[in-house]
Amino acid sequence: MTAEQSMNLFLTTDFSHYTRISNIFPERNFNWLTTELVTWKTFDGTIDQGILYKPENFDPHKKYPMLIHYYERKSDNLHNFIRPEPSNSELNIPFFVSHGYLVFTPDIHYKVGRPGKSAYNAIVSGALYLASRSYVDDKKMGLQGFSFGGFETNYVITHSHLFAAAMSVSGMSDFISAYGSIIYDGTSRQRQYELYRDRMGTTPWQRPDLYIENSPVLRADKVTTPLLMMANTEDANVPVQQGIEFFTALRRLGKKVWMLQYDGENHNLAGQLAKKDLTERMFQFFNYYLKGEPAPKWMTKGIPAALKGIDTGLEFDTSGSKP
What we know:
This is Peptidase S9 prolyl oligopeptidase catalytic domain-containing protein. Pfam families: Peptidase_S9. One of its GO terms (molecular function) is serine-type peptidase activity. By secondary structure, this protein is an alpha/beta fold. Helix content is 27%, strand content 18%.
């Protein structure tokens, strides 16, 4: 396989010469994608890499909106074929690229104690580097991250006004309260924060300044980017309270924010109806802010809890109301 061609079967007797014995290329029925390995210098002077996905019918003379998606390092996916499918949490790259978006996936290299700043260093510097290209619409750039990528979305929008829209899925917002929480199996999350993915390398008592620095909720007043969130009550990995804290803070401050919550769903969505719903709302959200398409009613009017599951609000609002 390649990023441009799906997997097929080959026959070989010597592992030097191959004969293809299947010929299945469903992607040829769609506006597929191409990949480019991008290299640039970050704010701290280090060299970083990421993948830029372009539509198959890419026109360098046009302006394209760009979505930036991240989770640690993704540049080793340069030649991977990505299946188009409903989103269970992450951005489905072929789906958005086939609808006229550029998608960029920068690698993030972390410094212990500075996970948020490390993400900012890679994401924002990469966005500015690509924004200098004539075909990137620098006024129509968006962010999408899941889990630790969701935290990184929360952090970046509290430190930058560069992006026109952002989506945070199952992400942390308060490192202090999260440090004291438990994981699905009942164990403390402290190990994760000190030694593992969250990369703090210390406790809140030794370095409270670092835990404050990496808590986006404490900078919610700085946010100017419209934000779509997902936080599920049965999330066994990131406590739903992390999403609620950030959502209620932003609402209290009068910011543009929406939170999706799927009953019976975990950190990732498993149900096909929930996946389809998330994909459609994500698509409508970014289309409104990055393409200027009409807003749906769930964005302009909201859906009261009493009507959850009854009124989807997915139809476009024709009244002239704006989010």
